[in-house]
Amino acid sequence: MKTIGILGGMSAASTALYYQRLNAKARERLGGLHQAELLIRSLDFAVIEEMQAQGGWDAAGALLHREAQMLQDGGAKLLILATNTMHKVAERMTLDLSIPFLHIADATAAAILQAGHKRPGVLATAYTMEQDFYTGRLREAGLDPLVPEAEDRAEAHRIIYEELCHDVVRDESRARLVEIAGRLGAAGADCLILGCTEVGMALTAENAPLPVYDTALIHCDTALEVALS
Fold first, then answer.
1. Residues 88, 49 share a domain
2. With CB atoms counted within 10 Å of each terminal CB, which end of the chain scores lower, N or C?
């Protein structure tokens, strides 16, 4: 099994999910007492969030590049970034690395296309919904993504940063996300991308009005397949 390097902490809630999922899937695949071989570098999300808010993407990319290099130097043979939003700086982060990097949007797009869907609604942070680094990559893969209207984008962003990133899941906020997902379906979406690694804390296949693709779970499962190949 190849050692997976996880660059996380953005937020801690999603990184914990990655740890749990990768180990659970390793046990499922290999049996016995097997677990995934992992290196985890968990950053202080307050520092990253300030860079996001101030538009300091170049500085964020340089920071993540240094951290990714540390994971490679520590023995990681595969790199994953346990957040959707910070894939905005993926190119800068992976500059000159010699180990492969598994992009979360690529893994998600492959799962959606394999299932026969084409027009995913995207629920994520405002950065991910409004900028082209993520939805553009989905389009390059052959999908036709939809994002919520401006008011719904703002509300989803607020719920993610003010609640889910703090491990808080409120019933009223869950209901709001279900409503937003419903409006995406009414606009023509045939499935739903949980495009922030925390959104799966509130939306699941059981309560969402559309078929759900949880990017964090897909990312973990794909990474484990690569690590075992």
1. yes
2. C
Q: Which two tokens stand for residue 97?
A: 């690395």
Of 83, 125, 197, 222, the active-site residue reads 83
Residue 204 is among the residues annotated as catalytic for this protein? no
Q: What is the pLDDT of residues 196-224, one digit of tens each?
A: 888 988 999 999 999 999 999 999 999 99
Cα 127 to Cα 86, 88, 95: the distances in Å are 9, 9, 22
Residue 177, domain CATH? 3.40.50.1860
What stretch of H or E contains 51?
A: helix 45-53
Q: Are 208 and 178 in contact (CB under 8 A)?
A: yes
Q: Which of 85, 128, 135, 196 is catalytic?
A: 196
pTM of the predicted model, to two decimals?
Answer: 0.92
For the chain, helix, strand, coil in percent to 5 are 55, 10, 30
Catalytic residue status for 196: yes
Average pLDDT (19-39) is 96
Same domain, 76 and 130: no
**Residue 192 near residue 121, CB atoms below 8 Å:** yes
Number of structural domains (the chain) is 2
